[in-house]
Amino acid sequence: MIGTPGTAQPADLADVRTTNLAVVLRHVRHHTPCSRADIAAATGLNKATVSSLVADLLERGLLRETGMAENRIGRPAAMLTLHGRPYAAVGIQVAADHLAAVAIDLAGERLLSWRRAFPGLAATGGRAEAAVAALAGRVAAKLTAQERRILGLTVAVPGAVTGTGGVRFAPHLGWSDLDLRPALMRTLRHPPYDVVVDNDANLAALAEHRSGPHAGTPDLVALIGGVGVSAGIVAGGRLVRGDRGLSGQVGHLQLDPSGPLCRCGRRGCLEAYAGLPALVRTALPDTEADGPITDYAPEIDRMAALAAGDATVSGALAEAGRRIGHAVSVLADLLDPRVVVLGGAFTPLAPWLLPAVEAEVKARATAPEQTGRIVVSTLDPGAVAAGGAALALDRLEAGHLPGCD
Amino acid sequence: MIGTPGTAQPADLADVRTTNLAVVLRHVRHHTPCSRADIAAATGLNKATVSSLVADLLERGLLRETGMAENRIGRPAAMLTLHGRPYAAVGIQVAADHLAAVAIDLAGERLLSWRRAFPGLAATGGRAEAAVAALAGRVAAKLTAQERRILGLTVAVPGAVTGTGGVRFAPHLGWSDLDLRPALMRTLRHPPYDVVVDNDANLAALAEHRSGPHAGTPDLVALIGGVGVSAGIVAGGRLVRGDRGLSGQVGHLQLDPSGPLCRCGRRGCLEAYAGLPALVRTALPDTEADGPITDYAPEIDRMAALAAGDATVSGALAEAGRRIGHAVSVLADLLDPRVVVLGGAFTPLAPWLLPAVEAEVKARATAPEQTGRIVVSTLDPGAVAAGGAALALDRLEAGHLPGCD
Question: Quick one: which of A233, A311, B301, B382 is 20 to 30 A from A335 by CA?
Answer without folding.
Answer: B382
